């Protein structure tokens, strides 16, 4: 039986080779190649940093084979593009060309493209381009345009801040590899308008003090370094876990974050246990969004949040275990799209004594019917209060009214839409979110004028009866 099978396979193999040997190669100028795209764009890349790889297909849809006398990079190595044709890199050794490439009729060829762009000595991204030319045996030339935008960045590698230091990235992006460590006793100031791009698995470790000094018209942005896309519709910047996040260690106090957008980290911010009589972190008019771990994790720390959005995290958007916390006019929304096992939006515990936690004028919502979890440890202080807020949780009993005053409990009649109705856009398919209030939101005109801040997350004045959450409608 095995001999018969071997004979059949050999016969088919010989027939296949015979077909190939009999292939007629066209020299007609009417027969051309077809491409999966006319322009191959590698989007924006940082100069001198290799891009990710992109590919495209070449098809021969004619009734005869086509032979390419050569496939070549028009500019050689001048623009930084690298091309692999049928396993062959086009380089200086082969004159940046592949010769005698054959495509049988109905056949296809996949070509891979990368780029490492040179420094362009300009503040804004500069377009770079090249042509990949297909010289057919018929004399016909076809070409595919290769393009990218090259962006010069200030590069920081394993920065150890031992003395007071200011990072000012207002004129060009800052690319961080190896992370930033702020030593005990040292202060790092990040100036308004700075945009920091962190490589994966690195972030900011704070043993000293961090001041992020954005303004309403010139925010600080801290994000991952990938500028390309996972899919055509999905930039890596919308994927969680792209970098490590910001970690405040036990020795760190007096930190401040103002007008800052922190997104697509693993943990957005982590605060380690410390002396709760000293303020560890004050966050105002900021955003923590799309984290693969926690948005804000505070363990036995003294923190304050004002006009801040914390949204879409695999673990809790806010996790507080003991210490002290004041949270006012914040939007805390759990619509994390990448895992249905996402945790609740807001969790507070007393494994460490919860000395005091006050939540005012805040919106706590998400997909699930209950987005609030509180857990008391026997013998530990558990002091908290929610007031003038909207919370997606079942109505508490009358006996708990001392902890919940003037709270609106979201109806759970339509669990799929009630939470989403608050916001301008909740688009899980494209991972696009806009947590500004929609006209349908019950948060409009529901805050307490005496305790709400006078402006919102964007610096917009709160006039009349203010709205619950970080944003005024």
Automatic annotation (TrEMBL):
Species the sequence originates in: Prevotella herbatica
Protein name per UniProt: Right-handed parallel beta-helix repeat-containing protein
NCBIfam families reported for this sequence: choice_anch_Q (NF041518)
Domain of life: Bacteria
Renumbered residue ranges of the record's region Disordered: 448-473
PROSITE patterns: PROKAR_LIPOPROTEIN (PS51257)
SUPFAM superfamilies: Pectin lyase-like
């Amino acid at each position: 039986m095995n001999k018969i099978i071997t004979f059949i396979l050999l016969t088919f193999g010989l027939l296949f080779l015979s077909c190939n040997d009999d292939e007629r190669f066209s020299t007609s100028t009417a027969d051309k190649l077809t491409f999966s795209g006319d322009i191959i764009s590698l989007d924006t890349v940082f100069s001198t940093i290799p891009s990710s790889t992109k590919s495209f297909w070449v098809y021969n849809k004619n009734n005869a084979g086509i032979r390419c006398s050569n496939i070549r990079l028009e500019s050689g190595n001048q623009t930084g593009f690298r091309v692999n044709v049928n396993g062959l890199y086009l380089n200086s050794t082969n004159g940046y060309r592949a010769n005698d490439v054959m495509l049988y009729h109905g056949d296809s060829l996949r070509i891979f493209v990368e780029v490492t762009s040179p420094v362009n000595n300009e503040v804004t991204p500069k377009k770079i381009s090249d042509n990949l030319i297909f010289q057919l045996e018929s004399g016909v030339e076809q070409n595919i345009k290769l393009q990218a935008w090259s962006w010069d960045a200030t590069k920081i590698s394993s920065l150890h801040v031992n003395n007071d230091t200011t990072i000012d990235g207002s004129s060009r992006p800052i690319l961080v590899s190896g992370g930033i460590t702020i030593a005990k006793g040292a202060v790092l100031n990040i100036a308004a308008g700075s945009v920091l791009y962190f490589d994966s698995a690195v972030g900011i470790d704070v043993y000293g003090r961090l001041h992020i000094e954005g303004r309403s018209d010139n925010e600080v942005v801290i994000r991952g370094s990938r500028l390309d896309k996972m899919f055509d519709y999905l930039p890596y910047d919308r994927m969680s876990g792209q970098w490590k996040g910001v970690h405040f260690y036990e020795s760190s106090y007096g930190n401040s974050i103002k007008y800052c957008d922190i997104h697509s980290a693993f943990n957005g911010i982590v605060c380690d246990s410390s002396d709760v009589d000293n303020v560890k972190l004050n966050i105002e008019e900021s955003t923590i969004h799309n984290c693969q771990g926690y948005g804000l994790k505070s363990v036995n720390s003294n923190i304050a949040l004002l006009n801040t959005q914390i949204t879409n995290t695999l673990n809790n958007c806010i996790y507080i275990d003991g210490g002290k916390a004041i949270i006012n006019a914040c939007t805390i929304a759990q619509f994390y799209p990448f895992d249905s096992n996402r945790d609740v939006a807001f969790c507070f515990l007393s494994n460490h004594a919860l000395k005091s936690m006050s939540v005012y004028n805040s919106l706590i919502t998400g997909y699930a019917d209950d987005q609030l979890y509180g857990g008391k440890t026997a013998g530990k202080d558990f002091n908290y209060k929610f007031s003038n807020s909207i919370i997606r949780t079942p109505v508490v009993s009358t006996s708990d009214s001392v902890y919940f005053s003037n709270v609106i409990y979201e109806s759970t009649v339509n669990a799929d839409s009630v939470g989403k109705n608050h916001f301008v856009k909740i688009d899980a398919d494209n991972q696009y979110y806009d947590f500004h209030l929609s006209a349908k939101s019950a948060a409009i005109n529901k805050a307490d004028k005496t305790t709400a801040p006078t402006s919102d997350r964007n610096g917009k004045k709160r006039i009349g009866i203010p709205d619950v959450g970080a944003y005024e409608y």
